[in-house]
Hints:
CATH architecture: 3-Layer(aba) Sandwich
Family: Belongs to the universal stress protein A family.
Number of strands: 5
InterPro entries: Rossmann-like_a/b/a_fold, Universal_stress_UspA, UspA
Organism: Methanosuratincola subterraneus
Helix content: 25-40%
CATH topology: Rossmann fold
CATH class: Alpha Beta
Largest sheet: 5 strands, parallel
Number of domains: 1
Strand content: 15-25%
Protein name: Universal stress protein family
Amino acid sequence: MTTCPTASFFEGFNKVKSNYKSIMAAVDYSYVSAKVLERAILLSKVNCARLHIVHVVRTKLPLQSRQTTAMDPSYKEVLMKDAATLFEVAGKKASEAGIEYTTMRLEGDPAEEIIKYASENGIDLIVIGSKEKPSTYAPLGSVSSKVATEAHCSVLIER
């Protein structure tokens, strides 16, 4: 039989220590991704955590089988160059804050790749953005929703 702590709600304050040693910022080119990066940098600094800045180039559509989507090579090259620029800016922000960081460009379905990377790299917290879509009733985007429900770790969704 499992025993539960008998301490009260009020006795629990100032007892929790952060377990965030490895934080992921899942970024793209959206406005909310700048907020994601700022939040992840702040949390990394407060927790003395390593920051993983991750960008996924979508080469697989949602609900598609394992094979990737055919993509014009010149378009893929543009996406890869854009990712390099994104990492340059993000890395500069992390460096200015004095944060240890890693950048990683992945390819595939964004939600699947974010979840997989987090699991394989011992990520404690994923910071991800949500794109509000006024034409739908879904309160979260499909990527952030899938990450929030399927990731093994905590997920912070920035709006």
